[in-house]
Amino acid sequence: MMSTSPTEKHFGINEPLFHKVAVPDSYLLRSLVAALLCFPIGIIALYHSLKVNHLHQRGKEEEAKRAALHAVTYASWAFLGAVITVAVSVCLLAAGITFLICFGIDWEKR
């Protein structure tokens, strides 16, 4: 039986010396769309999503995960804000059109 040194036992031939930690998802595309839909909150989401890779490269894994969580949270709030804005706009437009039809302008006289 062949004896192996402690180094060979700990680090096998196919086993890497350093275990790479996966980069957390930065949600960059989601943050970009959020920045277009709801400008102020989307920019904050974009800022946090851009920090993820930078923090990961510096070895700050926990901060990178926290930045990714902030990015997806702000992006979600931006999407919610955009949906609420569109819903309120449609309701106001429908109310305005209804008002004009019921009480408003007589288009044939103009």
Automatic annotation (TrEMBL):
Keywords (A to Z) from UniProt: Membrane, Transmembrane, Transmembrane helix
Subcellular location(s) per record: Membrane
Assigned GO CC terms: membrane
Predominant place of localization: membrane
Transmembrane segments: 27-50, 71-101
Pfam family, one: CD225
Superkingdom, taxonomy of origin: Eukaryota
Protein family according to the UniProt entry: Belongs to the CD225/Dispanin family.
UniProt-recorded name of the protein: Uncharacterized protein
Native source organism of the sequence: Geodia barretti
Lineage, highest ranks first: Eukaryota, Metazoa, Porifera, Demospongiae, Heteroscleromorpha
